[in-house]
Amino acid sequence: MLAESTVHKVLELGTSRGADFAEVFVEESRVSAIDLMDKKIEDITSGNSFGVGVRLLFGDEAYYGYSSDASEGQLLTLTENLARSHAQGAPGDLRPFRVESVQDRHPVRVDPDSVPKGQRVELLRHLDDLTRRHGEAIRQVGASVLEKRRDVLIANSEGLWAEDGRQYARLRLSALAEQGDGPQTATESPGVLGGYEFFEELDLGRLSEDAAQAAIRMAGAGYIDGGMMPVVLGNGFGGVIFHEACGHPLETEAIRKNASPFAGKIGSQVAQPILTAIDDGNLANRWGSLNVDDEGLPAQRTVLIENGILKNYMSDRIGARQVGVPRTGSARRESYKFAPVSRMRNTYIERGPHQVEEMIASVDFGLYAKKMGGGSVDPATGEFNFAVQEGYAIRKGKIAEPVRGATLIGKGFEVLPLISMIGDDLELAAGMCGASSGWVPTTVGQPTLKIDRILVGGR
C-alpha cells in the first residue's frame, strides 16, 4: 500500500523532531450502493478513496494530519509541519519493523466482485414486492444495499507493521403505512462484517413482514398518557439507549476529559447485580467487529460492567495512558482523515434469567417499547431522549393497544440501577455511531429488560 522505505522515513523524521511516538495509517477503500424507492432504482453509486494519516505524540499532546497525495516528498513535508507545531525536544526512539500476523476472524465467503450488479437490483425489487404484499396500507417502500471494502496499513515507531482488510455489507428496508392518524414508517437495517453471502442468507420474508406490520400497527395507533412509569424495553436495537447514554461515557475519550458521570467509578456498584455489560470486538462477522483496531492492537472482549460493578473503560493509546487503564483494542476512526479515539464496537447487555412474559406480567400500567428509534444524548451527563418506533401500552400485566409518538427520557447512570429484570433473548443490531473520529460501524444489543421507572413522553 505504501513502500516500507517511505513509511520508515516518515517515522524517522517524526521521532527525530522529538516525538515520543509516531504513527502512519494508510487506507484504501471502495464503496458501492444501490437505492430503490417505490419500485424504481433511484441511485447507483460507487467510489474509491486512498490516503495517508500521520500522527505524532509529544507526551499527552497529539498532532495529526493527512494527505491523499502519498508521494514521499508530500508525506515528509506533512510530518515536518506537524513537528513544527510542537517545541522541538530530544529525539525519540524508532524500532525496526516487526510484521504482525493479523488473524482474519471474519472471513468473506462470497466475494462481492464475483456477483453481478443486476443480482442486487433483483433482490431489492423482490424485497419491495414482499413488503407490499402486506396490504394497501403500505404506501411507500424504500430499500438499499451498501457494500464497502477497507484495506489498511498501520505502522508506528514502536516497530508495529500490521495490515488488515475489512469487508462490510448492509441492507436497509423502510415501509411507510398510512391509516388513521397520519403516516408511520418502520425500518429494518441489518449488516455484517462479511461478503455477499450476507444478502444470500437473509430471510427477506421475515424482514419485510417485520417492517410492514410494525408500520401498519403504528399508523393505526393512539397515544399513551406520559409520566413516570415502568417500561419493558425490547431486545436488539433497544440497546441503543445503553450505547448512547452509558457506552459513550465509558470511553476514555470522555473519562480523560472528566466529562463522564462514570469517571473515577471503577469498582463501584453502578447497576443491580443482575446486569453485566460487554464490548466485544471479536464476535464473528458482526457489523462492529475488527481483527485489529485502528492503532493495530488486536480486538478483544472487554467486560464493562460485571454483576452491577463497573470493571473497565474502553480505551485507545492516549486515553489508556492518561486514565491509567490497559488498552482494549477500541481505537477507531472513520477513515485516514481522522485520528483514532476510543470507540465502541459490539456493545451489549448480557443475557439474564427472566422471560418476557414475566416482565410484562409484573407491570400494572406501563409501556412496552418493542423497538427504539433515533434520539439524542449528552455524553457528559448521560441525559438522553429517545423515540419509540414501535410501542404498546401494558395494562394489568398484558400487552394492550399500540401507541405511537412515545419517548423515553432520563440519564443513563440513573436508569442503570433501575433495571430489575433481564431476559434470555439477547439480540444484536447494526448501527452507525458518530463521534470525534467520524462515523464507524457499531453493534448495539440487549435482551428484553424491565426498567422499574422512567419518564415517558406521550407525544
Query: What does the radius of gyration come to?
Result: 24 Å
Taking the alpha carbons of the first and last residues, their distance comes to: 53 Å
Strand content: 35-45%
Oligomer: single chain
Helical content band: 10-25%
Number of strands: 23
Report on the structure:
With about 450 residues, this protein is of the alpha+beta class. The chain has a domain at about 225-455. The protein has helices spanning about 5-15, 70-85, 115-130, 195-200, 205-220, 240-245, 250-255, 315-325, 355-360, 410-415, and strands at about 20-35, 40-60, 60-65, 100, 140-155, 160-180, 185-190, 190-195, 225-235, 275-280, 300-305, 310, 330, 340, 345-350, 365-380, 385-395, 400-405, 405-410, 420, 425-435, 440-445, 450-455. The strands form four sheets. Strands 1, 2, 3, 4, 5, 6, 7 and 8 form an eight-stranded mixed beta sheet that branches. α1 runs parallel beside α2 (about 70-85). The longest helix is centred in the N-terminal third of the chain and has 16 residues, at about 115-130. The relative contact order is 0.14. The mean pLDDT is about 95.
Summarize the model shown.
By secondary structure, this protein is α+β, with helices and mostly antiparallel strands.
List keywords for this structure.
six-stranded mixed sheet; single chain; 20% helix; globular; 10 helices; alpha+beta; eight-stranded mixed sheet; 459 residues
SSE layout and pairing:
Layout: H1 4-16, E1 21-37, E2 40-58, E3 61-67, H2 72-84, E4 98-99, H3 117-132, E5 138-156, E6 160-178, E7 183-188, E8 191-193, H4 197-201, H5 204-219, E9 227-233, H6 240-247, H7 252-255, E10 277-280, E11 301-306, E12 309-310, H8 317-323, E13 331-332, E14 341-342, E15 346-349, H9 356-361, E16 365-378, E17 383-395, E18 398-403, E19 407-411, H10 412-415, E20 419-422, E21 427-435, E22 438-446, E23 449-457
Parallel strand pairs: 4-6, 9-16, 15-22
Antiparallel strand pairs: 1-2, 1-5, 2-3, 5-6, 6-7, 6-8, 9-23, 10-11, 10-15, 11-12, 13-14, 16-17, 17-18, 17-19, 19-23, 20-23, 21-22
Helix pairs in contact: 1-2, 3-5
